[in-house]
Amino acid sequence: MSLHDRLRQSPVRLGLGRSARLAASVALLAASLASSAAFASPSIGITSDPANGNILVDDRGMTLYRYTPDQPGASSCYGGCASAWPPVLVDAAPLATDPSVAAGLGTAPRTDGSQQLTYQGAPLYYYVGDTQAHQAMGQGSDGVWFVVAP
After folding, report:
1. Are 70 and 76 in contact (CB under 8 A)?
2. Would you say 121 and 70 are in contact if contact means Cβ atoms under 8 Å apart?
3. Which pLDDT tens digits describe the chain residue by residue (150 residues)?
4. C-beta of residue 103 within 8 angstroms of C-beta of residue 119
């Protein structure tokens, strides 16, 4: 067996292939969340989370987050931050299943000219670590990312 053949079959090479596939999958998920959120104007609802109480979710059941360094009506999450925490982009404030939630929804401009959904002035985000509906894996992340309570 040649060295080339042995390298192709080595566990290190196999591990790198799996790592590359995992990284590509995460990147695809992030792009999917960002592109599906762009100008989608999802409806917003409330769900009960065992660990966090009532929280805001979109029409797919994906948890919405706020970033405490943001100022009211202004996102400070761009670049790598926005890759991990995609902003909820909309073309207008969406419908809400609860009138009290609807009253708090609005939009804020981003530097690229898109509009980001806000709740009570706080820009809203998804978390790429939430791969299924009703997950809240980003809660408390770095002490600055929190689910949004109605």
Report:
1. yes
2. no
3. 544 444 344 444 334 444 444 444 444 444 444 444 444 567 999 999 999 999 999 999 999 999 999 999 999 999 999 999 999 999 988 888 899 999 999 999 999 999 999 999 999 999 999 999 999 999 999 999 999 999
4. no
Q: What is the 3-state secondary structure (H, E, C) of the chain?
A: CCHHHHHHHCHHHHHHHHHHHHHHHHHHHHHHHHHHHCCCCCCEEEEEECCCEEEEEECCCCECEEECCCECCECCCCCHHHHHCCECEECCCCCECCHHHHHHEEEEECCCCCEEEEECCEECECCCCCCCCCCCCCCCHHHCEEECCC
Phi-psi region of 98 (alpha: psi -120 to 50; beta: other; left: phi over 0): beta
Question: Count of domains in the chain?
Answer: 1
Q: Quote the CA–CA distance of 45 and 62 in Å, as a whole number.
A: 10
CB atoms within 10 A of CB 81: 15
- Expressed as residue numbers, the domain containing 9 is 3-147
